[in-house]
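Give me the fold.
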Amino acid sequence: MTAYLVHWLLATLTLLITAQLVPGIRITSFGAALFGALAIGLVNMLVWPVLVFLTLPLTVLTFGLFLFFVNGIALKISAGLSPGFEIEGFFPAVLGSIALTLVGYFVRYVFSSMM
């Protein structure tokens, strides 16, 4: 149970940092970030596999680069489900999905060395 809470808090921290780095992504409060991180996890678990399956031909033709757009769609859906978590367009969603991945790697690296 504790591991899930730590993972959720690290995902929230990652989302807050990403919102500061990417123009067009806004988070109004820490509670909104908590809910946004939860929404991202649920969308990644439930919707993302369906999106990947439906866009598989494009993903193959672009050697996987289309997955950046799929991740942007998933992030935009997550923002739509979360009050206080807003993305102003599709480009910030795609850029945000890339930044979220990179910031997530960094946050996990920093906190894994502390634990």
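The beta strands are 25-27, 85-87.
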